[in-house]
Amino acid sequence: MMITPVHRFRDIERTPEYLQPEKCVPPPSRASLGTMWFIRDGCGIACAVVTWMLVFYADFVVLLVMLVPSRDYVYSVINGTLFNTLAFLALASHFRAMLTDPGAVPKGNATKEFIESLQLKPGQVVYKCPKCCSIKPDRAHHCSVCKRCIRKMDHHCPWVNNCVGENNQKYFVLFTMYIALISLHALIMVGFHFLYCFEEDWTKCSSFSPPTTVILLILLCFEALLFLIFTSVMFGTQVHSICTDETGIEQLKKEERRWAKKTKWMNMKAVFGHPFSIAWLSPFATPDQGKADPYQYVV
């Protein structure tokens, strides 16, 4: 088998002897694999906390500054219910994206026993990551923050304190979508509230003083506009990545496609589940993605 320039980006050995399995620590027992997935990264944890605080701030301004003082009861109930529903779905999606194993390859599985169990044939190639000492499947990449190889890793996102990979891409896409929707909704309500306050007495359009009301609305407007642009771009990028079945890392490295090409609809179903239903929009529905065997380490 001829090794192309693309293959040089990965550690390739043709025989188990070169993998130095004696330097690898055996993987943890199956009993310890059921523990909750959580990345202990200070920067990521801080970003995740800030994300929740910003959503709570937006909810505070929407409810106590704009909706509760409003004289239109129907307007307040409809917009309050819609905004809080979208905010709840956004935080639930964030929670699932953060605490779901993105597709980690068993760490330290490049042991002599495991390599022998693969029953390699002459000419077969195995991929080894020297950083986490694992024999990894195709399309897996090592994350320096998670300190693991992740299947179909797209990127590591500090805002969810996790990698975006094969198992949690759906939740990340939903998170960006719902954040974009509540940002747009907040901007629309801020615009209507400013028009209402200009036509009425400022002391009657809010429970706070006029200067405080203006400051709170301007901060919300700036926050909503910033995250509307950011999450909309991320949402579009992720959907394009799913449709083309090419992760962000693969696009960045311009890796040669070595996997079967599928239709856009098949790629969407692979991430969100089959068949299409309202469960696609739910962060509580775990898609039956029919993933490839994670132990396909040889090509």
From TrEMBL:
Keyword field contains Protein transport: no
UniProt-annotated location(s): Membrane
Organism, as annotated: Eulacestoma nigropectus (wattled ploughbill)
Name of the molecule in the record: Palmitoyltransferase
Source taxon at top rank: Eukaryota
Entry's free-text remark on domains: The DHHC domain is required for palmitoyltransferase activity.
Family as reported in the entry's similarity comment: Belongs to the DHHC palmitoyltransferase family.
Catalytic activity: L-cysteinyl-[protein] + hexadecanoyl-CoA = S-hexadecanoyl-L-cysteinyl-[protein] + CoA
Ranges of residues in domain Palmitoyltransferase DHHC: 128-254
Gene symbol of the encoding locus: Zdhhc3
Membrane-related topology note: Multi-pass membrane protein
